[in-house]
Amino acid sequence: MSVRLTLALDSGDLQLSGVTSVVLPTPDHDLSALPKSAEVVQPFKPFYDHFVSQGFECVPETTAPCDTAIVFLPRAKAQARAAVAAACQRCSGLVVIDGAKTDGIDSILKELRKRVEIFGPMSKAHGKIFWFQSAPEIVTDWVARSEQIVDGFHTAPGVFSADGIDPASALLIDALPQKLGTRVADLGAGWGFLAARLLQDPKIESVDLVEADHAALTCAQANINDDRARFHWADALTWQTKEQFNTVVMNPPFHTSRAAEPALGQGFIQTAARILTTSGTLWLVANRHLPYETVLGQHFASVQETAGDNRFKVLRAQRPTRKRR
């Protein structure tokens, strides 16, 4: 929680100067103690939009120099290290690290103590905040490779299924029929596995990839060299398009935090019903325990499980019934 940042600033122990870059804050972080001139770096579109609405200048990624960098640790260890390393590469002053115990702040602090003089640390709200004088050489071994190739695909630290093809997506691809229609949308497209496989079909005229994680979408653009692919950095829950699709495929996320949030997948289903033609079909793969059948039945005339195992289920929903626009 950003209460730690406020505590450090109010104490006078931490003093910011010059151009401040705020890396990976979430809506749970209150940045009101920072000047609106601070630039927020947030690749996740809903969070990006949140800070834009608060009046901050926001970018999904950056290599621009700064005088102070404040890094809010993400959950993924590889992404956390990459974020700290990137801050050290472009920051000339203090790098501030804030994180909860559950996000690995203690292990990051322990590792950095061996490399650089640490100031602080301050403990509050089940986490810590500390800072140090930046230098590019501090964590050169943490610098994420610009190209991470897994199973022949570009991925990146912190993106969904960064270590390889997601088994649920593989199950969905194997369950799809040969004829999908000419216009396909992939909601929550990730780094592009589903879309890349779909575009092997020459009968498909277009595949729209909708992905909220800018890093994942950048990987998808590297993985797919096909003029029929159209890339949208957008929140699938609110994405607007004038086009209607014959088919929607998706392996929707079911959490943005550690707790399962079935409403996310339900929102994806509602978007699918809105953008499909009246005779269109949604193909969805999900963890078996997630309760999607009810909301599918509310928005589609026909719902059927067509494939699955003890972990996942593939659901086909046909003929959306929700009135459009």
TrEMBL record:
Gene3D superfamilies assigned: Vaccinia Virus protein VP39
UniProt keyword list: Cytoplasm, Methyltransferase, rRNA processing, S-adenosyl-L-methionine, Transferase
InterPro entries: DNA_methylase_N6_adenine_CS, RsmC/RlmG, SAM-dependent_MTases_sf, Small_mtfrase_dom
Database matches in Pfam families: MTS
Listed CDD domains: AdoMet_MTases
GO biological-process terms attached to the record: methylation; rRNA processing
Keyword hit for Methyltransferase: yes
Residues covered by the Methyltransferase small domain: 153-316
GO molecular function, one term: nucleic acid binding
This protein's name: MFS transporter
